[in-house]
Predict the 3D structure of the following.
Amino acid sequence: MQVLKVSAGSRSAAVAGAIAGVVREHGRAEVQAIGAGAVNQAIKAVAIARTYLEVDGLDAICIPAFTDVDIGGEQRTALKFTVEPR
Amino acid sequence: MQVLKVSAGSRSAAVAGAIAGVVREHGRAEVQAIGAGAVNQAIKAVAIARTYLEVDGLDAICIPAFTDVDIGGEQRTALKFTVEPR
């Protein structure tokens, strides 16, 4: 399952659609964001995806965690959100 | 139960301690943030609070949602995070 990488410029509604699609197909989605702007777009997307998934009778929850990622040889701390039905 | 209001200047470790304390005492906590900097601190606090609550055998999940708040007579959209055991 691929990780959905969100940037500060990502449209949260578009990311929400992607999250809902991955949850429907794979049972869960992973979203990754680095920096306040990206984290804000990511969590707004999760809030919107919840409303999309409610239509399917899914009560989606979010599990935030820190994760280390390698960006061009540089170690960065990202926030990872796992989205899955409760 | 009071809402934990987080700002961009809040220390995420301190907020995490407050979240964990409220979840232990009341079974759930509500965290509110307005703006990218505040949302980033809030969600980092939830990620840290999860590690505190794991020590108590609690698998805490987060439910993000939009909420309208009144700030000095002005209507603003906040993000609200409900934190509770799965």
In short: The beta strands of chain B are 3-6, 29-33, 60-71, 74-85. The CA atoms of residues 34 and 72 of chain B lie 14 Å apart. The longest helix of chain B spans residues 36-54. The interface with chain A takes residues 8, 35-37, 39-40, 43-44, 46-47, 50, 61-66, 79, 86 of chain B (CB under 8 Å).
